[in-house]
Amino acid sequence: MSEDKIPTLQDVLSARPHVYRYLSRTPLYHYPTLSRLIGAEVWIKHENHQPIGAFKVRGGLNLAANLSPQARAAGLFTASTGNHGQSIAFAARAYGMQATIAVPEGANPGKVAAMQGLGAQVLFHGRDFDTAREWIQTMAAERQGVFVGPTDTPLICGVATYALEILEDLPDVEVIIVPVGAGSGVCGVSIVAKSINPKIEVIAVQSEAAPAMQLSWQRGMMVQAKMETFAEGIATRVPFANTQAIMRRYLDDFVLVSDAAIQEAILLLLRHTHNLAEGAGAAATAAAVQLAGRLAGKKVVLVLSGGNLALGQLQMILAKGQP
Amino acid sequence: MSEDKIPTLQDVLSARPHVYRYLSRTPLYHYPTLSRLIGAEVWIKHENHQPIGAFKVRGGLNLAANLSPQARAAGLFTASTGNHGQSIAFAARAYGMQATIAVPEGANPGKVAAMQGLGAQVLFHGRDFDTAREWIQTMAAERQGVFVGPTDTPLICGVATYALEILEDLPDVEVIIVPVGAGSGVCGVSIVAKSINPKIEVIAVQSEAAPAMQLSWQRGMMVQAKMETFAEGIATRVPFANTQAIMRRYLDDFVLVSDAAIQEAILLLLRHTHNLAEGAGAAATAAAVQLAGRLAGKKVVLVLSGGNLALGQLQMILAKGQP
Questions:
Q1: ipTM score here?
Q2: Whole-model pTM?
């Protein structure tokens, strides 16, 4: 995607009616005890309160609304570690389309069951997201269906609607921290925040166990990297060019946190907000703990992007110890 | 409270502006995999998505809005196992009042910290809610403050606003299952549901380890009972007369479930909805599992009344095993 194709605030506004036809606004809550712990005025954007438990559902609905009748009849093909697939399955059901979703072997069973519960056909293929994606892309071409990439522009514009909600609810927000998988969320936040108030600092976060997007942003070139995080929502091995272009234009910083810090953040969120976060969903909180000195006294929004943590993982994290 | 003082749908409608001045509607979501498991069309009313993690905040806001300036200046005194106290603390902060809240010794530490975070003064007294309540009631009288009982009529009318949301979102609901502590929630649901469509079945649920409200309803007289449940939100030893009167007029059934069944329901909700429920919040789900035959094929709403489970309890429940 060239720079001039970067979506605008107007594109995000256009997505709103498609999103709110099926979804409600999610809450932005201030948590006094978590704020005291971090030393900043901490607000959580609760995208885990979405019907599929993750922010991505906004994008799928905007994408589906903008398809031609022919494309809708052809059906949607995509790959996912779980939440993007649930988004496409949700949108497909809303618009009466067939969804076929490739997931890597060993995918989060709760997310798989949820996709199937929404009526999608789920196919297991390959060891990771990128392998599954290449495979289903070929199948979509063979069957003349619509392949949906995880960073397609209508998805970015759809998910960006949560950023508008943040700006409406907390106009004087100073910092927004966003987890990055393929980058649709952080791009949506950047486009909205920087269009409305360029002084708002947007900070991305990824696991140091899967830093492909962070390294690519830092070096200004596409870099593949190891992909060893437990947090499948931010487990990207191959970076995405269009989201990288947007991030290079708008993003203020991109930090890495350890998987251990993410797991501690899951416990912090359980203790202080009583919300279940998946790894990706807790990454912004882990970053806030790490950046506490820099955030001191500021109004900070942490995007809790999703809550679909597998029960086995929760059990393991609780057994390891409590912060 | 005499029968003719039972709140009406009009009273609930009057509470709405006071509630929505500070809160948003909560979602009512359909969960396909949980529905398949129970064999009914299962919807969850997500009162755990409230800013304090529980439905009670609606009641506190309606109560505070209806106080005289003199009463507001005198400050509020109440007793709570946690969520009612958070509701009063939240409302006190919103209206610039002082809140003093007695909790039993050993109260849920997360709930206590949240009350303090909202600016309330928290005092520990006695072994259970009822002991703390009698003590703080005396203190309120001595200090000429406003004592708030857990079933005061403005609280019932405030919490009843979630029932109106259920009826708006799912007009053809057939069964609503509601956990009972002091009874404000189930009374709110009953008043709304029976006023709009008397055919809607309202079923209450309590733990068999703390059955005072159920026994009192069943026998038509006020009965105290043992209070041994882990679920502090439904841990009532002494029944409440005004909510009993409403329940006798409207309620269709009142079932008991075991604490073990409630703990299994917490795991079911984690697995199928990725929401953390406290014991009271999972009781309706436990009842639905127990009543599955009777609910077969019906549109059923389970009220997830609150999510403030202590981390230690979650750890214990996960260690016990998964359904």
A1: 0.93
A2: 0.94
